[in-house]
Amino acid sequence: MPELLKIQNLEKSFYMHHFDKTIQGCSGVSFTLNQGEFIGITGKSGAGKSTILRSVYRTYLPTAGSLIYQSDQFGEVDLATASEREILAIRRHEIGYVSQFLKVMPRVTAIEVVQKALVEMHYTREEAKEEAKKMLTHFQLSQSLWDAYPQTFSGGEKLRLNLAQAMVKKPKLLLLDEPTASLDAATKESVKDMIVQLKEEGTSMLGIFHDLEFMESVIDQQYNMKQGMMEEGVEA
Ligand SMILES: Nc1ncnc2c1ncn2[C@@H]1O[C@H](COP(=O)(O)OP(=O)(O)OP(=O)(O)O)[C@@H](O)[C@H]1O
């Protein structure tokens, strides 16, 4: 399988001015994600798992190392040094990110959140609305909430909306930071179905899960983080 993302010696540290100390997020992290593959990252709280995902999405600017990504738009790109313009275009069309926290915009309804994601992918407004309805139905978001503002949604509802908005784009690379936290068994199944479907369509994924049983049912490879360092990978 062709390589999609090759991470070499990724390091991210945080300099805390107010107490003149550096906190290590992760260091010496190296691994390769192939096209259509799903890698799960495990490790204790604070081990550096989210730091890796945020560095790939460039929410965090890596301190050292390279993240060589094969972009449809730009060819081979190092996400650590790519321009802001490249990163924004890659986020818009190629890399999706799901966390438990929904970035909500004022006066944008739940269905518009998903619709907007598709309009960015050049769907017409009408097509986008139809696809958005299908996705919200898949993730069992009650129809009574479609025209509501997500600010007041519960944790699980926000997460399902986040999943819908990221997955509806069928991104090339999907970053999943605890995508099943606060979901019941039935909704977890719908997340699993969508993961399987996207994988079949060629999406590669990097994911963090507290539910190890769920994780092991969907991943191809697993890496464990310990105090900011990556341990040897084990085949899933
Ligand atoms: N923005 C930040 N500023 C300062 N320190 C940070 C920042 N983000 C992460 N860290 C630190 O980096 C280390 C790794 O954090 P990270 O969030 O990657 O851990 P994690 O393995 O995802 O933990 P959890 O499972 O609890 O979410 C922690 O010590 C954390 O305090």
From TrEMBL:
Coiled coil: none annotated. Gene3D superfamilies: P-loop containing nucleotide triphosphate hydrolases. SMART domains: AAA (SM00382). GO terms for molecular function: lyase activity. InterPro entries: AAA+_ATPase (IPR003593), ABC_transporter-like_ATP-bd (IPR003439), CP_lyase_PhnL (IPR012701), P-loop_NTPase (IPR027417). The keyword Lyase applies. Keywords: ATP-binding, Lyase, Nucleotide-binding. Residues 5-236 form the ABC transporter domain. Belongs to the ABC transporter superfamily. This is Phosphonate C-P lyase system protein PhnL. It comes from Pontibacillus salicampi. The gene is phnL.
